[in-house]
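Sanity check

After download, print the first record. It should look like this:
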Amino acid sequence: MGLMDILLNSGNGDLVKHVSKTAGLDESSANDLLKTLGSAMMGSLKGRVESDKHDSSGLEDLLKDSKYANMIDSPSEHYNNPKMKDYGDDLLSHITGSKENSINIANEVAQKTGVSSSLIKSLLPMLAPLVIGSLGKSMFGGSNTPSSSESSGSLLSSLLDFDHDGSVLDDVAGMAMKYLI
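Expected structure tokens:
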């Protein structure tokens, strides 16, 4: 199961239903919005992991934190938790690098989907723990050790390198564009 499948199937589809209700969209449109937004967030994270300009050493610890991986199984338990917005805002700094980059993602997704950027901005902190959780679940399967013999750093890079060419940079645009067009 791919990263986007893990994200979209979280809580047996509960995430899609929640976004549908929150955004006032039918479930198909909510699913498309989540694909576009999730792809943009994962694409941003890929760029940060691959870049020599950014320190992504704290990311591995976040991915090992089972609370994020556990959210994939029951995301509804965190939607209304006031601490989760704080967690989400903190995680966005790891995913996008800055508030400005998060706003840029929201604006780009809004332009492509027709959903208001203010609504998308409100979804970012809710979705950030689930993006981290889907990566953690892929890497560690809910435990604190990688599910393969690879080091967790190289496993993360391989998860984010969808075309398996050894570089995640070229995948950033491709992943986002797959759902933005």
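If your output differs, re-run the checksum step. Summary of this record's structure: Residues 109 and 156 are 25 Å apart (CA to CA).
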